[in-house]
C-alpha cells in the first residue's frame, strides 16, 4: 500500500477521547499518533481543561481537533461561538440541525469569514431519543396498534425519515455533512449524495465486540459510504490479546485502509 493511501485511511479515523485531564489525554494521543486523523472532544472536557489547553493538546500530537459541541442557540450566539472556535483553529464542529436555517446560516457565515474554515457537521437527532420520547416531544405521531402489527419496523422508519429530513435541511443551508448512527449511513448517503460528509459513532472492529452484541465494523461503515468513523473503547481500552492502544489503533487503521484500497 502506498503511503498516501495510508494517510487517506488515517484521516477517516477519529478517536473519541475519554481522559480525566490533559496529561492523561496527551499520553493516550501520543500512543496512537500516526494512526488517527482527529480527536473528538466534548464540551465537558473543554469546560474542565479550557479551550487553549485542548487546542494545544491537539497541536502537540499533530492531529486534527473535532469539537463535538452540538451547538444550539440563538443565531447571533452561535455565530459568535463559531467565530471564536475558528480563531482557535478547530478543524471540525457540530451543530444541531434543529436550530433552524437562521442559526445554521449564522454559523456558516462566521466560518466563511474566517481564515481557518473547519468542517461544520449537523446533528439531526440525538442518539438517545427513541420513538416514545419523540412522541412525547410532539415530533412524532403515535402509531395505531394495527400499523405496528402490519409493519413492525414502522417506528424506526419514521425516525429514519425525520433524520433524513433534518440532515437534508442542514445540507440545503450549506453544512458540510452530518453525524449519523451506523444504520443510517446507507440511507443518508443515497438521500444526500456523495459529496455530503457522513460521520458515525457506535462502530467497533470485530476483535473488540462483546459476543451477542454485533455492531457495525469500520470496514462495513466505510464500504457503505461513511467518511469518518469515531472509535472509542476499542482503542482506549483494547481487549486481551491486543497489546495496548498503539496496536489497537494500527489494527483499526489497517482495516480502514483495506476497505478503501483492497489488496
Would you give an account of this structure?
The chain is an alpha/beta fold. It has one domain: TIM Barrel. The chain contains 13 helices and eight strands. It has an eight-stranded parallel beta barrel, surrounded by seven helices. The model has no long low-confidence stretch (mean pLDDT about 95). This is Orotidine 5'-phosphate decarboxylase.
CATH architecture: Alpha-Beta Barrel
The helix/strand series, from N terminus to C terminus, equals HEHEHHEHEHEHHHEHEHEHH
Overall geometry comes to globular
Provide the domain count: 1
**Termini separation:** 8 Å
Number of helices: 13
Instruction: Specify the biggest β-sheet.
Output: 8 strands, parallel, barrel
Strand content: 5-15%
Widest β-sheet, arrangement of strands: 1-2-3-4-5-6-7-8
Structural class, from secondary structure content? alpha/beta
Low confidence ranges: none
Oligomeric status: single chain
The portion of residues assigned to helices is 40-55%
Mean pLDDT: 93
* CATH class group: Alpha Beta
The whole-angstrom Rg is: 19 Å
Q: Mind telling me the CATH superfamily name?
A: Aldolase class I
What is the CATH topology classification name? TIM Barrel
Record field, number of beta strands: 8
Binding site for substrate: 213, 232
Function: Catalyzes the decarboxylation of orotidine 5'-monophosphate (OMP) to uridine 5'-monophosphate (UMP).
GO molecular function: orotidine-5'-phosphate decarboxylase activity
Pathway: Pyrimidine metabolism; UMP biosynthesis via de novo pathway; UMP from orotate: step 2/2
